[in-house]
Amino acid sequence: MADPISQQTLSPMKDLNKKGQQFYRQWEERRKNKWLWVFINGSVYWGLPIAIVTVFSRSNFHIENMKLSELAISVIIFGIGGMGYGLSQFKRIDNMYLALNDDDEIEKGIQTLKAGGIWNYENLKISKKDDEMLIIQNELFWFEEKEISTENINECLNLIRSDFSRLQKNKEFKDYFGTRKAMIQLFDNTGSNTPLVEKVI
Q1: Mean pLDDT, 10 residues at a time, over the chain (201 residues)?
Q2: CB 103 within 8 A of CB 153
Q3: Is 59 helix (H, G, I), strand (E, B) or coil?
Q4: Is the pTM of this model over 0.85?
Q5: Which residue, 97, 117, 146, 147, shows the most beta carbons closer than 10 Å to its own?
Q6: Contact 126, 109 (CB under 8 A)
Q7: What does the alpha-carbon distance between residue 20 and residue 9 come to, in Å, rounded to a whole number?
Q8: Using CA atoms, how far apart are residues 10 and 15, in angstroms rounded to an integer?
């Protein structure tokens, strides 16, 4: 019997019904025991039944023809395969869980921007300059001052653009961003108020 949460398709938390929220809370606890979940749902619930059915079918569906050694080998083989299956299922459900958390964080971030505040998202500090533009700054610069070069700057700019592009995949943020422009301001680690570079995207 498979874990019931694996049969659910989760939507953003605000759209979850009471039953969906229960599954969400259950997964919050279950993900803490990752490998136990993978073993039970992969090797036990998936691998073991397949191993038994496989050996039983090879015995022409007669229990007395089943060989214990063959059953043991099948259990080991499908048990190992089941771990892979269980892990893929865990990752699928966990990605849903993480997406829900991210949706909630992004929704709060949008409200912060609308109120004129600064939103810290991953390595980004996002603020609203005006109704036409957002300012995107970096929290962390990955190089020491003595190592700063054009190549370093371009690498950091690409990382910031990548983080911002992932954020734009969220529908609510994409709708909020709309036709606005964004200005990237890249700062070093010295605490200077002057950006190394500014770039409108």
Answers
A1: 47 55 82 94 95 90 85 94 95 81 83 93 89 90 76 88 84 88 89 88 82
A2: no
A3: coil
A4: no
A5: 97
A6: yes
A7: 9
A8: 9
